[in-house]
Design a protein that fits this description.
It contains no helices and eleven strands. The chain is mostly beta strands and about 120 residues long. Strand 4 and strand 5 form a beta hairpin. The termini are far apart.
Length: about 120
């Protein structure tokens, strides 16, 4: 099995910064894309940022220029550096990883339990 553990969420004032981390552990043979999603109360879960194993990135329009996704393949870890935070960034942030285990024939998506980010105005 694959386990994802997120950290780094919290309460911050508007304009502040936070850095989220997500570590993948377990019987991992390989990891493809890694990403961050978020879900605000009453809203659907949405993609925030994605990074491939080749380092290509993609961002939601609402966070471009403010958030940066990165990964450390040696540590099976993905990061999300968030700057210039706004109250509308308030949500539960979830890590998502496409991983291959020795028992799988293809990559499967795994989710973390989420970390709360609250931005006060």
């Amino acid at each position: 099995q694959v386990r994802l553990v997120e950290s780094g969420g919290g309460l911050v004032q508007a304009g502040g910064s936070l850095r989220l981390s997500c570590v993948a552990s377990g019987s991992i043979s390989a990891i493809n894309a890694m990403g961050w999603y978020r879900q605000a109360p009453g809203k659907q879960r949405e993609l925030v940022a994605l990074i491939t194993n080749g380092g290509s990135t993609d961002y939601a329009d609402s966070v471009k220029g403010r958030f940066t996704i990165s990964r450390d393949n040696a540590k099976n870890t993905v990061y999300l550096q968030m700057t210039s935070l706004k109250p509308e960034d308030t949500a539960v942030y979830y890590c998502n990883v496409a991983a291959l285990t020795p028992r799988d024939m293809s990559y499967r998506a795994y989710w973390g339990q989420g970390t709360q980010v609250t931005v006060s105005s």
